[in-house]
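Dear support,

I submitted the protein below through the web form. The confirmation email said the job was done, but the results page showed an empty box. After a refresh the structure appeared. I'm attaching both so you can tell me whether what I see now is the final result or a partial one.
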Amino acid sequence: MSRPGMKKLFSIVVIIAIIIMAGVYCTDVYRNTGTPPATKQPVGKTEGEQVREVQFDYGPLRNDIDGLLGDSGDEYSIFVLKGDDAGDPLIINNKVRRSASMIKVFIMAYLMDEVSHAKLNLNSTLTLKASDKVGGAGIISGWSTGTEISLDTLTRLMITESDNTATNMLIDYLGMDNINSYIRQKGYSDTVLQRKMMDLEAVSAGRENYTSVKDLGDFFTGLNNHSCVSYEYDQKMVDILLKQTDTEVFPAALPQVQIAHKTGELDHLYDDGGIIYTENGSYIVVVMNDGVARREAVSKMKRILQAANTRLNQT
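What the results page shows now:
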């Protein structure tokens, strides 16, 4: 065979060898990874890609909390859920309890739902009447009668200042029956609004507002997942909750992180709950209690949140 023929034959053999080796490599990759090299997913989350979720073991945290509560465990209800947890939340002693101002998050959610469906406009205004003004938490009761206040401002003050006058104006405007219908529709089975804020006659008559850590936990979980109302309005609610001015419990326990939360307080009752944002992700904690001295409740709630933060941020 001539020298040019030999070179051509050698080139053909080399090409065939390369093809065979590449085929062996691809087969080996597919056998070990289950994914052909040409279809490997890019690093990082892409639009529409589902994040793999895992179930968190709440056992050690449950032991921590049981140790913190001791004999007072029945007086507390607790909800904890890691933001990326695909399993069930940790729920301790869920029961229907007096809601105090925690009921206000459900009023906010109903209003935002109506706005999202173009049934209401946050720029619409209500006129402050002398009969609207009530005591307790808030600042609007000190405003001049006849002041025009937007739904947006009323909603923000209802949450950030826990303003009772703002809350009552919104209850009157939205309708108590409509609010309760929304609460039932969303599956918050332990929650009911039966009176306005500071309505002592209603309390004496046995009409009280109720909710539970499960319902509140489900609400905050929906916000965190942007599945409560819509992405836009869930984020608006989070932004409002981040500006909460009552910082005595959760923010005091974890001053280094952002917390979108709501508090509630009555005689021998102090509640706090919301979304805690850390460098390792978010999680939801709600703590309710009843029949507990205020100082004890504040102290134990801080320690419960700190215990949750430690366990949920362990790698």
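Response: this is the final, complete result; the empty box was a page-load delay. The radius of gyration is 28 Å.
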